[in-house]
Design goal:
There is one protein chain. With 88 residues, the protein is mainly alpha-helical. It has one domain: Ribosomal protein S20 (Methane Monooxygenase Hydroxylase, Chain G, domain 1, Up-down Bundle). 83% of the residues lie in helices and 0% in strands. Helix 2 runs antiparallel to helix 3.
């Protein structure tokens, strides 16, 4: 436990930021999971909607700095590759 005043404040700030960031990270993760499930059902209409939602959530998380922009880009790329494999 910190006993320096500035570090105690910093710990409080880190805790608050962690809780805020969890919302965006968890939302993105949930939407990606839903999109992958929709792709597995091979329903193109539902898959498209879910993939777009997942991409929006990943972009929002990257914009807020919760995940790195390259991490978001990689996840979107993999998701789109799976989605595009439905057409074959």
């Amino acid at each position: 436990m910190a006993n320096i005043k500035s570090q105690i404040k910093r710990n409080k700030q880190n805790q608050a930021a962690r809780l805020r960031n969890r919302v965006y990270r968890g939302t993105a993760r949930t939407f990606v999971r839903k999109a992958q499930a929709a792709i597995r059902t091979e329903d193109t209409d539902k898959s498209q909607v879910e993939v777009l939602r997942a991409i929006r959530a990943l972009d929002k998380a990257a914009a807020k700095g919760v995940i790195h922009k390259n991490n978001a880009a990689r996840r979107k790329s993999r998701l789109m590759a799976r989605y595009n494999s439905l057409d074959n």
